[in-house]
Amino acid sequence: MQVLVLNSGSSSIKFQLFLMPEERILCSGLIERIGFDDAIFKFKTKNDTIEFVSPILNHKDGLKLLSKQLLDKNTGIIKSPEDISIVGHRVVHGGIHFNKTTQITKAVKEKIKELSSLAPLHNPANLEGIEVAEDIFPNAKQVAVFDTAFHQSIPEHAYKYAIPNEFLTDHHIRLYGFHGTSHKYVSEKAIDYLGKKDSKIITIHLGNGCSMTAIKDGKSIDHSLGFSPVSGLIMGTRSGDIDPAIIFHLTNKLDYSLDEINTLLQKKSGMLGLTGFSDLRDIQEQAAQGNKACQLALEMNVYRIKKYIGSYAAILNGLDAIVFTAGIGENSQLMRALVSKDLEFLGIHLDAEKNKIRSKTTHAINTDDSKVKILVIPTNEELEIAKQATQLFKNQASFI
Description:
Layout: E1 2-8, E2 12-19, E3 24-32, E4 36-45, E5 49-56, H1 59-70, E6 84-91, E7 102-103, H2 106-114, H3 123-136, E8 141-146, H4 156-159, H5 166-169, H6 180-194, E9 200-206, E10 210-216, E11 219-223, H7 245-252, H8 258-267, H9 270-275, H10 280-288, H11 292-316, E12 321-325, H12 326-331, H13 333-340, H14 352-355, E13 363-364, E14 373-376, H15 381-392
Parallel strand pairs: 1-6, 6-8, 9-12, 12-14
Antiparallel strand pairs: 1-2, 2-3, 3-4, 4-5, 7-8, 9-10, 10-11, 13-14
Helix pairs in contact: 1-3, 10-11, 11-13
């Protein structure tokens, strides 16, 4: 059967069409810089590679463009919408309601919408992808795979906030964790590479959204994103960790409304707020040309990542490997070099020549005598989603 996977990020849509259970990719692609006039559309099959720049102002427009390409008579991959059996969707926030892969119903969509206030850059885009896919592929099963599911193993002492207990028991305010599909996928690859299940790993997902996970014996035990995907590391447009008193100051002294503060922290902060650029490729280029703001922003970004490496190494009581993944983690040798620098006391030693290697498979970039492995593992959230979505229906005769 054919399974289409849609992975809607805050400013991008990654997609892959799989033949399952063979796990064969029929087509793949990416729509990035959504919301800009110079958005990029990429589509690849065995025989064709299509790439062009065009204004794509929102996720709905991007998905319509994708559906048109899938059905194109000359370069498309399907003849009819009925060719698609399952559409698997990445959904960022599942709250306490969803701890496993779920078939999408009206009630599920209502919960995803309800949780949008906790992931305003993602859940609305995820929901839009679901609704557009329902229109385009009305006979397909729609399935949600939640970012938060992998982090259900985080212990209470790590997910509970130091506020009165009723906020957890009555209102479910706690650390949920995100990018779970990616962290799960690359951690399993890392465990296979290490050849040991009793492992201590830190996975570092660096893209427009960024997060880190402490993983012990294959289970998430702490994570940098919390109640919503805005805490932790410095991201493309999100602030990461700040003193919560800043919010009160903005309200009481500078007359910001709560909506304005939400927009500020979610869409106008992070690397964009520091430099005027949200794309790390632009920031690295500007930094190399002497842009002081971009140089400082890179330094701040790296410093924050190192703080989390140190704290996670402590709670893991040791470290077997750190894993770089996602768009920046996989492609920026500069970021990997800066993050790995001056961590020799932890047994982390980067090989500068190995760090230059670009590969689509798991590879180590540490020196031969490094106690801790430094791994670059291309994430494949789409394959993980396809596997989980297929598994959900494995017992249904029509999907065998």
